[in-house]
Write a structure and sequence with these properties.
Length: 261
């Protein structure tokens, strides 16, 4: 994992959606290790979110939990506004909240009810987070960093989970467009695209153990002898959030071990 000899986010204020578990939780802990002054964990898993925030908080790092369903525009707006009101600014938005398809639907058996729910979170929610974070950064004259969670499915077709694949293509399009529009304000917009990670969400979708899910995804990786973990993705997010990536925007950073479909 990343060396902690340098505090890359000293004094930064960050929001992490989907921060109560998986990639979001790993990123929150890494941000705290690297000196972030304030971390807001936003999620709908209230009990878990409070536990994670409490375990991260230190005298040097304020870490609080806020209930936020990203599919509700008003909740996202309130999340960002309260962060700025309470902490003076917003430097980093990690728009990470998302869900998987509930079934391996194809075009021939497409379920529009399921599609609408998934798009409300994975796409509409992502747009709301980028929009509200960008507005706060522009108003506060902050040269901020916005990072979205996409997927290897954002750049290729899939044989199943059609709705999920579509949603991640939309995220990549959002990042590429937003980066061009917000560059004039000094705001960088990027995304991370992991291969499958054995998070609680992924294991639940597959109805398999962590070990079984890791074997499924490693089989499609060129790089052998290593399992993709949430911490690997968190390292990539830290890079994109920090000044080490000062000239990187509109980029899709693959964290996939050389994924081959």
């Amino acid at each position: 994992m990343t060396s902690l000899t340098k505090k890359k986010l000293a004094g930064k204020v960050a929001i992490i959606t989907g921060g109560a578990s998986g990639i979001g939780e790993a990123t929150a802990r890494l941000f705290a290790d690297h000196g972030a002054g304030t971390i807001i964990i936003a999620d709908i898993q209230d009990e878990l979110g409070h536990q994670v925030a409490t375990s991260i908080a230190t005298p040097d790092c304020i870490c609080t939990y806020v209930h936020c369903d990203v599919s509700d525009d008003d909740q996202v707006k309130s999340l960002v506004e309260s962060t700025v009101q309470n902490h003076g600014k917003l430097d980093i938005m990690f728009s990470n909240a998302g869900i998987l398809s509930k079934s391996d639907q194809t075009v021939l058996d497409f379920d529009f009810t399921q599609f609408d729910r998934l798009m409300a979170i994975n796409v509409r929610g992502m747009v709301a987070c980028v929009k509200e974070a960008a507005r706060a950064m522009v108003d506060g004259r902050v040269r901020g960093s916005i990072i979205c969670t996409a997927s290897v499915a954002a750049s290729q077709g899939t044989k199943r989970r059609t709705d999920y694949c579509m949603s991640k293509h939309a995220v990549l399009g959002l990042v590429r467009s937003a980066s061009k529009q917000l560059g004039v304000h000094g705001i960088r917009v990027n995304c991370v695209s992991p291969n499958g990670v054995a998070t609680p969400l992924t294991c639940g979708a597959h109805e398999k153990s962590v070990e079984e899910v890791e074997e499924i995804y490693e089989a499609k990786m060129v790089l052998k002898g290593v399992h993709l973990r949430a911490g690997h993705v968190a390292d990539a997010v830290l890079f994109l959030a920090s000044n080490e990536s000062e000239l990187i925007t509109g980029h899709d950073l693959l964290v996939d071990g050389g994924f081959q479909p």
